[in-house]
Amino acid sequence: MAAGGRASEPLAELSHYVVARPIYSEPGFQEENERRPPLPPTLRERAQAACRCSRKRAFQIAKSFLPILEWLPNYRVKEWLISDIISGLSTGLVATLQGLAYALLVAVPVGFGLYSAFFPILTYFFLGTSRHISVGPFPVVSLMVGSVVLSMAPDENFLIEGSNATGANVTGALIDTESRDAQRVLIASTLTFLVGILQVIFGVLQIGFIVRYLADPLVGGFTTAAAFQVLVSQLKIVLNVSTKNYNGVLSIIYTLVETFEKIGTTNIADLIAGLLTIFVCMVVKEINDRFKHKIPIPIPIEVIVTIVATGISYAADLEKKYNAGIVKSIPRGFLPPEPPNVSLFSQMIAASFSIAIVAYAIAVSVGKVYATKYDYAIDGNQEFIAFGFSNIFSGAFSCFVATTALSRTAVQESTGGKTQVAGIISAGIVLISIVALGKLLEPLQKSVLAAVVIANLKGMFMQVFDVPRLWRQNKVDAMIWVFTCIASIILGLDLGLLAGLLFGLLTVVLRVQFPSWGGFGNIPGTDIYKKVKDYKNVIEPEGVKILKFSSPIFYANIDGLKSSLKSTVGFDAVKVYNKRLKALRKIQKLIKKGKLKATKNGIISEPGINNEAFETDEEPEDNQDPQVPTKEVEIQVDWNSELPVKVNIPKVPIHSLILDFGAVTFLDIVAVRSIKTIIKEFERIDVRVYFASYQDNLISQLERGAFFDDTIRKDIFFLTVHDAVLYIRNQMTYSDNQDPIFEKISLMQESKEPIEFTEASQPDDELDVQEEAMRRLAS
What we know:
It is found in: Membrane. It comes from Zonotrichia albicollis. With 779 residues, the chain is mainly alpha-helical. A hairpin with a 6-residue loop joins strand 6 and strand 7. 55% of the residues lie in helices and 6% in strands.
């Protein structure tokens, strides 16, 4: 006794159990327990339930659409307000700098990054369900928006002749940067508006589940590739090297090649400022992480570095003396709202779909982490609606797509933020920067902003160390991570995400198409059944084979079920049947020649007649399946006398087959028809097929698929494998061992005309075409 030997004496009686109950088949269990089939509601009842409204339900609907009505009345002013103010101040400073920096990724003037760090927070405050995420730009999403902007408004479209241009590209051609920037801002805001519309539609249609198809390994590989894309895009800004704007397949390779080809034109002042910023930011961030239990508020190193760099740039006049690239102009105040350019929707619909999903997935993933930590729930569909309206609203004010940033959210939470009140306060800090402080940041070098972006990529690059762990835990997940990362680097973020998603779905299909299966046996003295290959003490019931197929059964894996059946039972039911028919034909010939005589005791030879007429089976055997016996065996027609014809007939050592469907969740129509055919193929060679451990919904699916008839009834379905085994034992105790083939032999003896031995015709074309062809060939 395994567990009982270790149990204390008072609990010894609890170390085992004894159950006495009838053997349950499906009809018997339903009859005894009076099964009540569920009645689906009528259309009228559904309409009444949908249209019924009460004061309580109306308030619940209002709270679900405006979550602020849920948490704001319960706001603990004395406990939370101070923490939210401190958190909002810290987060606002970081959001201001990140807004400026991430605008570089979108390829718009940096001042528009401040708008993108301000407007989305206003709507999310009322509509969002997460209390801790900081809404605003995120480098991955910003880069995806920037790729669309650069593809639709490249520099080549704004080349002009004359001297009225405000900039020049690497070839010396003049560029109308004012018109280019205005067009790029319009494209970015229009894309943001379209992304918002798609997100609202997704939320209204309640399809927040779509983010579940973005598995963690896929997101990890994608964000790591995006971090690499961001690094390359910011590298040329740190070096202050002018390159073409590449998009599409291999764009990152082209950018790297051109950057290193022109590395000789690097601006030393920008390079030094960028490298120092990266070094200082990463060191201080590491200090914040290691000593976060001692430092009450993380050091806002981005803010400190920016202030110092701006002061140095202004005092040393780096633009004039060293030709450093600086921000130059940040608009003060707000621009009036502008409608989107609807004519551009058709050119950006595909990209907007992927951006909408990725932005939502990032926000929900981060939100769920903090919701779990602080024991509250976020509504995925409402998050779609919240971010959708945030992007629609901010798109009208020349912003780019908003989601959440991991580092900024970590600052908001670690500094004590309790609710979105901290978010509103951070928006107030950004507002001050827009209205009053923007002018002070104009001397800031762009390489410093690019370095701030690069320093914030550390967490994404650290995901590379997840691959060895994934490989040890699940090799398929590791392959998804690596494939998505490589595809996103080579193909670009939009195509790479699609390729990774398709590859992930392909792995699921393959795992379902080739599931695990095995022959099961019984552990003596118990009702437990385990794989025969995995346990030494497992014993297969005599004359019974048990197969467990661990997957839904549908058109793609039905062949896998058939091959697993052949491997489990050790023979091919179709081949056995055809071999028996061939033996009967040869016996008929010998009877006609007088060589044999059929009696009630079997087939005997006439006295004094040798068996010269006996024929050998010259048909080559198929040895592809080593588990199927192919040696010649002597068949007893009545299981007492030998079959006097040499035909290689595979042995049939079983009389029953049990299919354990405990892991089968659904069957399609192809599976229903194929299983019905399998049953009839085995019954023709006197092997009964039973089903066990099935789920209730399978019976309904079989009924809808016209599975049951006069020959296949529900009494072959049993609640457990042990029920089926006990039933088979009881049946075999009283079974009649007469062979139906003997009846055919006797019929030949009485008939003067040759008897045609043809396969029983199957109604409804249930047998596969290939198997039908084999029978015709054998006949």
